[in-house]
Amino acid sequence: MPADVEEYRARVRAFIAEHxxxxxxxxxxxxxxxxxxxxxxxxxxALYDAGxxxxxxPVERGGSADHHPLHDLVLMEELIRGDAYRPLDQVMLxxxxxxxxxxxxxxxxxxxxxxxxxxxxxQLFSEPDAGSDLASLRTRAVPDTGAGGGFTVTGQKIWSTxxxxxxxxxxxxxxDPTVNRHAGxxxxxxxxxxxxxxxxxVREMTGxxxxxxxxxxxxxxxxxxxxxxxxxxWQVVTSGLASERAFVGANAVQLERMFDxxxxxxxxxRHPDGTAAIGHEDVQATLAExxxxxxxxKLIVRDTVERILVDDEHPSxxxxxxxxxxxxxxxxxxxxxxxxxxxxxxxxxxxxxxxxWYHNFLWGRALTISGGASEIMRGLIGRQLLGLPRA
Length: 391
Ligand SMILES: Cc1cc2nc3c(=O)[nH]c(=O)nc-3n(C[C@H](O)[C@H](O)[C@H](O)COP(=O)(O)OP(=O)(O)OC[C@H]3O[C@@H](n4cnc5c(N)ncnc54)[C@H](O)[C@@H]3O)c2cc1C
Fold this sequence. Notes:
Bound molecules: flavin-adenine dinucleotide
CATH topology of the largest domain: Butyryl-CoA Dehydrogenase, subunit A, domain 3
Largest sheet: 4 strands, mixed
Number of strands: 10
Shape: globular
Order of helices and strands: HHHHHEEEEEEEEHHEHHEHH
Number of domains: 3
Strand order of the largest sheet: 1-4-5-8
């Protein structure tokens, strides 16, 4: 990283050490109570106020004139390293979509509330029968017949992360079923407390409930809720999804932290003969393999960083980083489970780390699905990077 970016890193690190709100566990983002919710909203606001978040926005909307594209990556790396609560993807994606497609009125109304930590956003895209193939979604936004320009929305969404505490939702719904399925979709900005919206949290196998089913039953929306053009929703949501994948570069730091946990686990896990797992050759070989995989991810991130510096980013950068991170994460959790199951006990100092691995093992799969499943990433890489024909 250039020296000025490293200087920025030092400032971010000091800020996080002084003010950061901790994460309770990987993928655990919904506040446990009102005190934690207040702390998280305050923390997000502090990051915007300090100029660390939203620095890439236009200057007149609070952005910073000397923003460097690598600052965002460094910020995410340091949040992970400091175990601080990470800004919600949904909030960042919504900001990008509003900045790119919003009217001046929407920007004036919505963006300051994001910066103040007042508006948490969720994404209302996926449906029970529309995930990877999002354009097949069936939620209808039927235009009013009168001159008002309003819509009535009916349908069901699912896997909506943070919907239970979000103030706003970015909704994708079908406004014209008679045209090409990508062409008949519209994006809406929706207050989550409107009549007709019912939110039911879904319990995950980790025991937490981080995402929800959202039922929309005759929800009335006005023209001020349309983001971008009517029937132009596909462009709005796909621009955001692409930027979501780019954030994952910072996750190489996460993998490094996981490796430290893997070594700590191998030191604390006892085999039947009383020796620590780390003394066994097969465990050492597994650790070496894990480290090699992490080094591969770090090289991918370094390659991306080098190309960001010379303005030579490629559409496949996000999918490559996402795939490498998600699959390596799962591989590490499987290694941890092998270490645990080959042991008969864990020393007291390793209990906390073992608990973390149980959670990460159950949570890790989600990463191979959210933000585009691994199979979809492989398809994108095949077409965009390797130039393979569509199967
Ligand atoms: C932690 C998490 C958070 C999420 N948060 C949100 C959110 O906030 N808002 C939201 O709207 N959605 C959210 N989602 C939903 C997510 O976007 C979908 O789960 C994802 O798009 C996959 O869709 P699906 O679950 O319907 O699976 P499907 O699309 O039905 O896929 C099932 C399987 O088939 C494979 N498959 C599908 N199509 C192809 C293909 N063309 N080629 C090869 N294989 C294929 C997939 O890879 C997968 O293995 C979240 C999901 C997770 C796990």
